[in-house]
Known about the structure:
Elements: H1 16-50, H2 55-84, H3 99-104, H4 112-120
Amino acid sequence: MVTHQTIDEPDTVLTPEDLAALRENLHEQLLFRQEQLRQFASTTRADDRRRQADAAQLEVGVKLAASARMVLADVEAALARMESGNYGTCHLCRRPVERHRLLIVPQARYCGRCQQVREAGR
């Protein structure tokens, strides 16, 4: 598990307390997204039975469910990285992901620099 990293940048050090808070945040997100997907599924079934669903509402629901599934997958991957000891390491450059970034987006896979490069390439 990544708890202390010896890097010149002080913002890359994750304390055990940071990791515990991040793990708790990720678990809360996991439960929220799972419940959100259950609600989408039950709403979709009810709409199908009634056959009164508005096309625009249905499309929004489908997109929200897809977004929830993507976030859920990211959260599950972050928890798996915590378990394997790879949490907090950028997938591209293998440098530590900045502490402040992880505290804001605990499921972040990339450091700020690599994320900017990825977004610029889109």
